[in-house]
Amino acid sequence: MPSEGMSYFHSLFHSAGALCRGDKQLLALWVTKTRSDSFLLCLIFITTGCAVYGAVIGCRQGWEMTCYVALKLPAIIFLTLLVNGLLNGFLGLVLGSEIGIRHSFRFLLTGFSVMGVILLVISPVVLFLSFNLPAPGSEEAVSGHAATLLLHITVIAVAGILAHFRLLSCLRQFAATPRAGTHTFLAWLLGNLFVGAQISWNLRPFFVSPGLDIEFVRPDPFNGNFYEAAFSALQSLFPL
Amino acid sequence: MKEEEQTQAYNTPLITRHEHANPLFKGFEPIQGGCNLTNLISFLLKKPLAIIHDIETQRKPGRIIFSLIMVSAACLLVFGFVVGTFSSDKIDDTQLWAAPLKIFGGMILSSLLCLPSLYIFSCLAGVQARFQTIAGLLCSLVALCGLLLIGLTPVVWLFSASSNSASFLGGLLIMLWTVCVGFGCALVMRAGRVLGMKNLSHIIIWCVVFLVVTLQMTTTLRPIVGKDERLLNFGEKKFFLQHWGEQVFQDLRSEKSPRFQ
């Protein structure tokens, strides 16, 4: 007879599989919170998946950075949801999908849970790949840093897009009309990308540039924003 | 008795006959649960056409219009305060009270300037509605815009606290403002259709005019973001595109932009 812990683990595993398959019945139960443990499961999936992937990002820089990024990656998700919560709810209503603040929060939480699961299962692969790249202290540290940056950004972007598109079909079904569901989905995606990029800038560093110190956050986390920095980088490439 | 009088339909408009024939008329029905403030906010987001329906069919829609103005005032003042935090962190605290007043005042002024043209343009488009209904429609536009801006305040605060560049924040605010006014204009168009509009082009022209007026107001009432020697700068006349262009080039010349680390 399996113990209680084992049966909970089995339930987690089963839920993760059903979520990734896009089980519409389960998604509907999660979103409407008819299933009471859905919120807790979402928190477990997001925290575990992002923390493990965060640890993979930071592990090349030592144990300190491993812990820091493992804490900061789930924090980006939760802070983005918090900052955009009101707006997502309003957009859901205004765009005619009839999805209010509470439901939009649950939808996005479910979407990010799928992303957490994807990041969790891809972590061993990425860990293997990142250990095959030039180490931070080596002669080729600069190219190694660029390759690491590219690898992680690609993996996170793909995981995010896959997770959100898994949610799209459910959103189209749940919304007043499929068209309104698609519009709401695109508006949420755009808003979350825009704000998520800025929050990740505020919580930097994740990939410590060669020559810079390892810190939890930079001494001036609110000095500048992601888009100013991106523009500045473009300016240095193509001077006006 | 007074309540009855208020809810009494004095003259059911002609267009309600088509109410269920076209999906565009969905939501053009009486407000359920009374016209209290929370219900009004909820309907403004979910079924804004219900508000237009009640304004059009009630003999005295003043209470609804007053509530819409109150919602707009509260939302725009809070949004303005958050915008003012950018300058208060970096320059001085004057903008904490000046920015909300300028944003609210600017919107009121823009609405007053555009109300007559909205009435005439809606008449040209074939809309069969009273002046009160058109005024209520404009108030709904402003209130919806204000509500969406309230939803954006956490985002604006995040960028206001992080940005060094006034042009960046100004650009972001203008983009968000345009999006919110766009939602308001979409409401005007939907309401126009249910009120018998035959030609959309007149309303589109009005929407462009309204957007341009609100954008020009940002330059007329400058500075709203960033600093200037004076609280208001009515002396120097500038078109908003010229003013923004100058600000952007001024910022590009300075080397304050952060770097990726």
Descriptive notes:
Chain A has helices at residues 4-21, 24-32, 38-58, 63-94, 101-130, 141-174, 178-202, 226-237. Chain A has 240 residues and is an all-alpha fold. Chain A has one domain. Chain A is globular, with a radius of gyration of 19 Å. Chain A starts with a helix and ends with a helix. The mean pLDDT of chain A is 84. Chain B has 261 residues and is an all-alpha fold. In chain B, helix 5 runs antiparallel to helix 6 (131-162). The termini of chain B are far apart. Classes of the chains: A mainly alpha (240), B mainly alpha (261). At the A-B interface, helix 4, helix 7 and helix 8 of A face helix 6 of B.
List the SSEs and their pairings:
The complex is a heterodimer of chains A (240) and B (261).
Chain A lengths: L3 H18 L2 H9 L5 H21 L4 H32 L6 H30 L10 H34 L3 H25 L23 H12 L3
Helix pairs in contact in A: 2-5, 3-4, 3-5, 4-5, 4-7, 5-6, 6-7
Chain B lengths: L1 H6 L29 H10 L1 H10 L4 H29 L3 H31 L6 H32 L3 H29 L5 H21 L19 H14 L8
Helix pairs in contact in B: 2-3, 3-6, 4-5, 4-6, 5-6, 5-8, 6-7, 7-8
Mean pLDDT of chain A: 84
Indicate how many domains the architecture of chain B comprises.
1
Mean pLDDT across every amino acid position of chain B = 83
The ordered H/E elements of chain A are HHHHHHHH
What descriptors fit this protein?
heterodimer, A: 240 residues, mainly alpha, 8 helices, B: 261 residues
Give a brief outline of the structure.
The complex is a heterodimer of chains A (240) and B (261). Chain A is an all-alpha fold and 240 residues long.
